Q: What sequence folds into this?
């Protein structure tokens, strides 16, 4: 992301050239986050628009306590979660304590498929299974997994975006990964036979 | 995966594959895996799961989505004028 105090001042003053640059540089990260959270291109586009409209309005209030990138991720994450909640009102809020059963995390699939050839691991069908597995994660786990493992944020940055402690991020990430491993294992184990 | 040691180690596996675990605990996991093919399989496949997801390509924002975004933000002319 383009940095520097001068650029930030231009953004906060509502300079359209600076904002166009800001949008061009960051639309990819927002779109991918929304697509991975919502698994629907139309919803992802709506979140993309909402995020940059909200960011434009909120920029004058940006205090620089976090990086501009973290701040934008926070707006995009909230917009994605709001949209999910509108679609499925029973959705669990990301800051509610998790009530997942501890046994839920115990691995059941024990086949070692890790050395299957790459073309089998990354076939079109396998990619579809991978995407579906993410979309089936409970939202509090999904948002952490998407930010940390798909968008490449650090554990600390993910915590900052979501208002979670590093410990909470790690626990959720681990549970998400175990669930995904389980789903992928069911699929790939069949390919080994 | 029913052994008590396996259950205890399981909670640390993400830290292990992320390289966030202290050396003595890494050594403990590695010692355990030598005698426990189930844990070895879980570590290998967990590591591969993360690797596969991290290797997925980002989706480019489609040109029509970009145009509608700039229109909504009233930045169309700025982009066109450059």
A:
């Amino acid at each position: 992301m383009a940095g520097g105090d001068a650029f930030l001042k231009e953004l906060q003053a509502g300079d359209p050239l600076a904002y166009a640059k800001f949008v061009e540089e960051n639309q990819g990260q927002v779109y991918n986050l929304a697509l991975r959270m919502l698994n629907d291109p139309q919803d992802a586009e709506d979140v993309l628009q909402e995020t940059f409209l909200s960011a434009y309005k909120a920029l004058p209030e940006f205090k620089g306590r976090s990086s501009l990138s973290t701040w934008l991720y926070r707006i995009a994450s909230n917009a994605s979660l709001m949209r999910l909640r509108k679609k499925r009102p029973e959705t669990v809020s990301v800051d509610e304590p998790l009530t997942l059963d501890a046994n839920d995390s115990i691995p059941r699939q024990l086949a070692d498929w890790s050395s299957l050839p790459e073309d089998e691991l990354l076939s079109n069908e396998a990619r579809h299974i991978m995407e579906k597995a993410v979309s089936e994660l409970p939202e509090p786990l999904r948002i952490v997994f998407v930010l940390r493992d798909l968008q490449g944020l650090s554990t600390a940055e993910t915590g900052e975006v979501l208002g979670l402690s590093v410990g909470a991020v790690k626990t959720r990430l681990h549970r998400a990964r175990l669930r995904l491993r389980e789903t992928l294992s069911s699929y790939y184990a069949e390919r080994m036979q | 995966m029913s052994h008590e040691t396996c259950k205890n180690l399981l909670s640390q596996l993400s830290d292990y594959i992320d390289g966030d675990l202290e050396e003595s605990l890494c050594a403990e996991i590695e010692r355990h895996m030598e005698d426990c093919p189930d844990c070895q399989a879980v570590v290998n496949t967990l590591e591969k799961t993360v690797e596969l997801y991290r290797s997925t390509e980002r989706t480019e924002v489609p040109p029509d989505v970009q145009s509608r975004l700039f229109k909504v933000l009233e930045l169309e002319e700025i982009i066109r004028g450059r």
